[in-house]
Amino acid sequence: MIKRKTLAAFIASVSLVCFCSLSCASKTVEKSVDSDENVVEEDSAVLEFGENLDADEGEKNDEADSSVKSKSKSAKELKKEIKAQEKAEKELNKQGKSKKKAKNGEPEQIGVSGWVAPSFKNRSVDMIFGSVHMKSKSSLGNFSLSVYDDYKNKSIPVISTANESMTSGYSLKTGNKIIKLNDDTNVKTSSWKNGDEMNVGYRIENVADVIVNFRCYQSTMDSNVDVVKLTATVTNMGIKKSDFALKLVLDTILGETDKYHFYTEEGEPVKNEVLLRDFSDNRFIFSKNDKASMQIFFDGADITPPELVALANYSTLNVQNWEPDLLSFRTFDTILSYSDSAVNVTWPKRRLGPGEQTSEVIYLAFALGENKPAGDELIFGDFDFSVSNVGVQAEYEMDKDYSEFTGLSQEQLTSDYIQKILDRISTLEENDSTVNREELLRLNAELDAILEALRM
Fold first, then answer.
1. Closest by Cα among 350, 448, 434 to 400
2. DSSP of 150-162, one letter per residue?
3. Which residues pair with 267 in a beta bridge?
4. Which of 230, 305, 327, 365 is 20 to 30 A from residue 299's alpha carbon, by CA?
């Protein structure tokens, strides 16, 4: 009896185990089928993606082949331009390797053009040699020229000092574009001294560098230093050959208080506006009043002959036209300005390759009072102009110390305070009595420090 019950229980347990095994096997089979279906679907999707990818790559390859074929011509042109650029850069680097380290604390000249970047040390230049007084500010790219009276310790300007002497300056024509070098935001400016010379530089990135060198001479061995040579050098900083031309406008002021604005080499007065192209009979002109006089030379020595010279009202010359529009019967007056004369000197265009240079030279001579300048004795004499004849004459250089203006008050940064400084400077420069040069230097130094602080 017991055995039958045990056997029945054993059979029942075996049946249960078999049922569970069959159930699990069934589920496993279902999962396997589902998995196989998923694998099939995934394989199908992969195949479909592969086909699409092959198609896309085929289309891209076709487009690339088409692009290569269509752009093969431009690629050749680009290759030529790259080779030309590399050649130009090698030439500039070759010439620029010889960086001239300045001696005696002078600034370092960089590259083929000799450009010197503006810095704290060369923020301004103020130099006196004999009767020649030269000034410039790096931030403006301006220059001023005066006759220095050593007895009165006073300088008499020969060109206008209006607007910080910005009314006189050079313009550069490159291609069909005219750039006024001291009045263009795309032009970097700098000023520095080199021994007994002053330099004013202008940089138009990847186009050209223009450096104007001011060098002094004595008209005779017994005279004071009274002649200044202006040499404007243009360097092509581009990668292609280009045409360049220079123009100089001098906003003269001496003749504006005299009976006539200008006189010819023979002493004949110039009564109306005039355009000169032949300088054989007009090698120079001069302008004067009872305080000073100035000669401007267009021929002789190593002067580069201008294409034209115009004597006219300043408003007639201060235009974008490269060649001024003059009226031979018009005096030096216009509806825009009265008795405001100026001189325009334009040189012919020069074609320059990358790194090549050209220079234009002009001379000015000064004299005090009613004395006539003696520059013609030097210019038309027998003298080697490659060497300055300043000799042992002492330079009176005005070095400015900015250290006392490092901490500026809010009051010093106001427009009213700046205007007071400008008015005081103007009064000191225009006063016929003895100038307090220390005060003038201090005011200029303070003004420079204020302007520098406002730019920061």
1. 448
2. TTTTEEEESB--H
3. none
4. 327
Rounded to whole angstroms, the maximal C-alpha distance in the chain is 162
The amino acid occupying position 114 is: G
Phi/psi of residue 47, nearest 5 degrees: -60, -40
The CA distance from 3 to 393, in Å, is 144
pLDDT single digits (tens) 71-120: 444 556 666 665 666 665 555 555 444 444 444 445 555 668 889 988 76
Dihedral angle, C-alpha 380, 381, 382, 384, nearest 10 °:
-70
* Residue 294 to residue 223: CA distance in whole angstroms: 15
Which residue type does 43 have? D
- For the question of whether the overall pTM of this predicted structure is more than 0.85, the answer is no
10 Å CB burial of residue 311 (0-12, 13-18, 19+) is buried
Among the listed residues 309, 164, 331, 183, the one whose alpha carbon sits nearest the alpha carbon of residue 248:
309
DSSP string, 254-299: GGGGSSSSEE-TTS-EE-S-EEE---SS-SEEEEE-SSEEEEEESS
Q: CA gyration radius for the chain?
A: 40
